[in-house]
Design goal:
heterodimer; A: ABC transporter involved in vitamin B12 uptake, BtuC; two-stranded antiparallel sheet; B: Rossmann fold; Rossmann fold; seven-stranded mixed β-sheet
Chain lengths: ~290, ~400
C-alpha cells in the first residue's frame, strides 16, 4: 500500500516535470534556443492563477486564463527577443538570462517575496482499496496526463504539429517544402509557454509559490530534455515520470535530504547507456 | 595703551571665531550606525521589519533630542546596505560599511546564511555587531566575537519553556521531528529531543529533507502509521505551511504541531483541520496585545512606517530595545568610540523596554518571550519569563 501511494506521488510530481519539459524540449530541442526564461513562465502562470482564484473566479478559469496569458507572453517574447537571436545561440542564451532577471525582479517588486498559495478545487483526501490518496494530487495527475496526451496528439495529428516536427528534423528542409518557419516558431513558443503556464497553475494548487520559484522547474526541465533525448516530446514525458518516480522512491525509502541527487544519478546512468537520451533520434544529437 | 582700529577689529574677529567654535562644539554631533539587512530577496520577510525597528528607535531617540555624551548632544544617523538574502552581498555590504571609519556599531541580519558571512567580516574588525540569526550562537563566546550580541534567545533557552508548555497544552505523548537538512536543524534536534524525552514524550522518528523541497509527500509518508500524535517542525513559515497543508491532504498523520519558528500564520488557514499548533514569539505577541507598552509601540510603529501591523511586524522588535540600550551605554560610558567599554556596559545592563532585555557575558539574549498557541480554533499566547527559563 505504502509503495503504491509513493508511486502515485512520484507519477504526480513527474507529470508536473513533464509538463514543463515539453516546453523546454520544443524550444531547445527543436529550435536550438536555450530559453532560460521558461521557468519564469511557470512562476507567472502560478501567480496568474493565484490572482484569478483570489478574485473568486475559481480554479478552472484560472487554468484557462493562465495558459492563454502565458501563451500570449511566449508569443511576445518570441517576437521581441528570440526571433532576433535564432542564428546566434549565445545571444539568445544571454537575452534569456536578461529576461529572467527582468521578470523575476518585477515579480518580486509587484507581488512581494512572501510565499503564497491558493485553495485547491479538491481539498482533503479519500480512501480507496486501503489507500489514502490526496484528492488534489489525483486531480493534478489526471490533468497532466490529459495535457501531455493533448500536446502529443496536436504534434502528431494536426497540420501545424506535423510542421513543428518537420522543422525539428530539418529546419532548412522544412523551409524548402513551404513550411512557414516564422509561423511555426511562434506556435512552438505559444505551445511551450502555455504548457509552462498550466504547470504553474497545477504547481500552485499543491505547493507555495514565490517570485523565486522558477529555478527548480527550469533545471529539471533541462535535465529531462537531455534525459528524454533532445527534441523528443515523448522522451521528455517519459523522463519526467521516471524522474518523479526516482525522487519519490528515493526520498521515501532512502533519504529525503538527497532528493535532487536521484535525478542526476538517473541522468548519468541513462546517458552512459543511451548517449542520445531515452528516445533521442539516431544521428541527430549526441550528448 | 591705545589700540589701532585695525588691531581692535582683528581681536574682535578672533573672539567671535573662538565663540563660534565653542558654540559649534556644543551643537549636536552625529553618531553613524551601520545596518546590513536583506532588504530584498526571500529573507526580507524578517530583515525588512527588523531594519524598520532600528530606524524607528533611532527616530525616537533623535526626536527626544538625541543623547548627551560628556555634555555634548549627539544624534544618530543610519547607513544601510542590502544583503539581498545572499552571503556574498552580505559580505560586500559589511565591507562597504567598514570603509567608513565613523561606523563602529552595526545592526542587522536575521538569517544564518548571510548572517554568518557578515559576522565573519565584523569579527575581524573592531565593531560592535548586533545580529539576530540562529547560527550566531555558535560563534558567540569565541575569539573575535567579544563585541557581538544576538538579540533573540537561543534555542536552548527557548526550548526549556517552549517544550513543557507545548507538551502540557496539547497533551503530546509521541512526536516525530521533521526538519530541513541544515546545520541549524542538527542543533535543533540535539536540543529539543532530550527535552521532549525529559518531559515524557517519545521521539521515534527524526527526518531531514532537502531544504528547497516543495513536495513533502515522500518524507511525510515516513510519518504515517507510526502512532504519532505530534510533530516538531520548522524552520520558516512558508515551509511549515506547506508541511501542514500536505499533512492534511495525505491523511493518517499527526494533527498537533510544535513549530520551532516565530509565527502562527502557517496554521491559521488549517485551524479546523488540525488539533493544535504552538510557536515561539521571540519578541512580543502583537496579535493579542494587552500590555500597554506593546500597544503604544504598535501605534508608534504604524505612525512611523505608515504601515499596518502584519504577521511579520513583530520582527521589528528584534533590535528596537537594543538601540536604546546602546544609546544609554554610550551616555554612561561617555564615549561614542570606545566600543569595548560600550560593549561591557550593555552586557551589565537590564533594560525594561517593550521587551525585557539583558545579555549574558557572551552576548546571548536573555529576554522574556511569548508562546503562541492555536487550540480549538482560538489563538492565544502565554508569557514566559527569561528568569524562569534559566532555572
Amino acid at each position: 500500500m505504502d509503495l503504491i501511494q509513493t508511486l502515485l506521488d512520484g507519477l504526480m510530481v513527474g507529470g508536473l516535470y513533464a509538463t514543463v519539459a515539453i516546453g523546454v524540449t520544443l524550444v531547445f530541442g527543436i529550435m536550438g534556443i536555450l530559453n532560460f526564461a521558461h521557468g519564469q513562465m511557470v512562476m507567472l502562470g502560478a501567480y496568474t492563477a493565484f490572482f484569478v482564484v483570489s478574485a473568486g473566479l475559481g480554479f478552472w478559469p484560472a487554468l484557462a486564463i493562465s495558459m492563454l496569458a502565458m501563451g500570449a507572453l511566449g508569443l511576445l517574447l518570441e517576437r521581441l527577443v528570440f526571433r532576433h537571436t535564432l542564428t546566434d545561440h549565445m545571444t539568445g542564451l544571454t537575452a534569456s538570462l536578461g529576461v529572467i532577471m527582468v521578470i523575476e525582479n518585477l515579480a518580486a517588486a509587484a507581488f512581494t517575496p512572501d510565499p503564497r498559495n491558493f485553495d485547491p478545487p479538491l481539498p482533503g483526501s479519500f480512501q480507496i482499496a486501503g489507500l489514502t490518496l490526496s484528492s488534489q494530487r489525483m486531480l493534478v495527475l489526471t490533468l497532466v496526463v490529459l495535457l501531455v496526451v493533448g500536446c502529443y496528439l496536436f504534434l502528431q495529428k494536426t497540420r501545424t504539429g506535423k510542421a513543428v516536427r518537420a522543422m525539428g528534423q530539418n529546419r532548412t528542409g522544412a523551409a524548402l517544402v513551404g513550411i512557414q518557419i516564422n509561423h511555426v516558431t511562434a506556435v512552438i513558443f505559444i505551445l511551450g509557454s502555455a504548457m509552462a503556464g498550466a504547470a504553474g497553475v497545477l504547481y500552485g494548487s499543491l505547493f507555495a509559490i514565490s517570485p523565486y520559484m522558477a529555478a527548480a522547474p527550469l533545471m529539471k526541465g533541462f535535465i529531462l530534455t537531455v534525459l528524454g533525448g533532445l527534441g523528443s516530446v515523448q522522451g521528455a514525458v517519459l523522463a519526467g515520470f521516471l524522474l518523479g518516480l526516482a525522487e519519490s522512491l528515493g526520498s521515501r525509502y532512502l533519504s529525503a535530504s538527497f532528493r535532487d541527487g536521484y535525478g542526476f544519478i538517473l541522468l548519468i546512468v541513462t546517458l552512459l547507456y543511451f548517449p542520445r537520451g531515452l528516445l533521442g533520434q539516431r544521428g541527430k544529437f549526441r550528448v | 595703551m591705545k589700540l589701532s582700529i585695525f588691531t581692535a577689529f582683528a581681536r574682535s574677529g578672533a573672539l567671535a571665531l573662538a565663540s563660534l567654535a565653542l558654540a559649534t562644539s556644543s551643537l549636536a554631533q552625529t553618531v553613524k550606525l551601520g545596518m546590513v539587512n536583506s532588504l530584498t530577496g526571500p529573507h526580507s520577510t524578517f530583515d525588512l521589519p527588523a531594519s524598520e525597528g532600528v530606524l524607528m528607535a533611532v527616530d525616537e531617540i533623535n526626536r527626544r533630542g538625541g543623547i548627551t555624551v560628556k555634555g555634548v548632544k549627539h544624534t544618530f544617523s543610519v547607513v544601510s546596505e542590502d544583503a539581498q538574502s545572499k552571503p556574498e552581498f552580505a559580505v560586500s555590504g559589511a565591507q562597504l560599511l567598514l570603509r567608513d571609519d565613523a561606523i563602529k556599531i552595526v545592526y542587522g541580519i536575521m538569517t544564518s546564511g548571510p548572517g554568518m558571512a557578515a559576522a565573519t567580516v565584523f569579527g575581524k574588525n573592531d565593531v560592535l555587531y548586533v545580529g539576530g540569526f540562529t547560527l550566531m550562537d555558535t560563534i558567540l563566546g569565541k575569539p573575535g566575537s567579544d563585541k557581538m550580541f544576538r538579540t533573540l534567545n537561543n534555542d536552548a533557552t527557548v526550548a526549556r519553556s517552549f517544550v513543557p508548555t507545548s507538551v502540557k497544552e496539547m497533551g503530546l505523548k509521541k512526536v516525530g521531528i521533521m526538519l530541513p537538512n541544515e546545520d541549524v536543524s542538527r542543533s535543533i534536534v540535539a536540543i529539543y529531543k532530550p527535552i521532549l524525552e525529559a518531559n515524557g514524550v517519545q521521539v521515534p522518528i527524526v527526518e531531514y529533507f532537502q531544504p528547497d523541497t516543495s513536495d513533502f509527500a515522500p518524507v511525510l509518508r515516513k510519518f504515517q502509521n507510526q502512532g504519532l500524535d505530534g510533530m516538531l517542525t520548522g524552520t520558516n513559515d512558508a515551509m511549515v505551511e506547506a508541511i501542514l497543508r500536505q499533512t492534511t491532504e495525505l491523511g493518517n498523520l499527526p494533527k498537533k504541531f510544535m513549530y520551532r519558528g516565530g509565527s502562527g500564520a502557517p496554521a491559521l488557514k488549517y485551524a479546523k483541520q488540525i488539533d493544535g499548533f504552538t510557536w515561539q514569539i521571540l519578541t512580543r505577541d502583537l496579535d493579542n496585545a494587552s500590555d500597554p507598552k506593546v500597544k503604544g509601540w504598535m501605534d508608534r510603529y504604524k505612525a512611523f512606517t505608515k504601515k499596518d501591523i502584519s504577521p511579520n511586524t513583530y520582527w521589528a522588535l528584534t533590535y528596537y530595545d537594543t538601540v536604546f540600550m546602546m544609546a544609554r551605554a554610550i551616555e554612561e560610558v561617555g564615549s561614542t568610540t570606545d566600543i569595548k567599554a560600550i560593549t561591557a556596559k550593555i552586557k551589565e545592563m537590564k533594560y525594561d523596554g517593550v521587551r525585557t532585555m539583558s545579555f549574558d557575558k557572551d552576548g546571548r539574549a536573555e529576554s522574556d518571550i511569548d508562546i503562541g498557541m492555536l487550540k480549538n480554533g482560538k489563538v492565544t499566547s502565554v508569557r514566559a519569563s527569561a528568569l524562569q527559563l534559566q532555572r
